[in-house]
Amino acid sequence: MDARDPDLKKELDAALQTRKELGAEYESELVDSFMEKVEQRFNDTADRHVRRQLAEQQMATARGARPYATGTQPDQSHGLGVGERFAFVGVSLVLAIPLSAIGVVNEGLPGLLITWAGIFGVNAVHAMGGFSWLRRSRKEEESGV
Q1: What residues of the chain score a pLDDT lower than 50?
Q2: Of 85, 83, 95, which is closest to residue 119 (Cα–Cα)?
Q3: Where is this region: Disordered (predicted)?
Q4: What is the largest CA-CA distance in the chain?
Q5: What was the pLDDT predicted at 116?
Q6: Are 46 and 13 in contact (CB under 8 A)?
Q7: For the chain, how many structural domains are there in total?
Q8: 137 in a structural domain
Q9: Structural domain that includes position 134
Q10: Is residue 128 in some structural domain?
Q11: Is 39 helix (H, G, I), strand (E, B) or coil?
């Protein structure tokens, strides 16, 4: 205790000294008083820790990082931010142009329908939270596993 909080050690020493002077009849009051000080010290430390965590999250958000990449926030379903979801849809639509041309040239209208069914399927799976293997591998990379 003395290495972590010298003020608390002083408070304990003072409480023990006071108990020696006043006797055992004031022991419960002295213990209650000391425990209130310990609780207050604990609450102050926990409060500082929570404030520091919130400040770190705000800084990460300001820098463009994704502090809630685990999907715990309702507006970021499946751990993907709005930018990542928008990029996925954008890339799939850009790739849809040459894929549609290839499908039409090779098979005509059925080729075009099959191509767009595939594009729709990939986007639907992505929107429903599929590709969990991709999220899992990203999480392992971020954690250093």
Answers
A1: 1-2, 68-78
A2: 95
A3: 54-77
A4: 100
A5: 92
A6: no
A7: 1
A8: yes
A9: 108-144
A10: yes
A11: helix
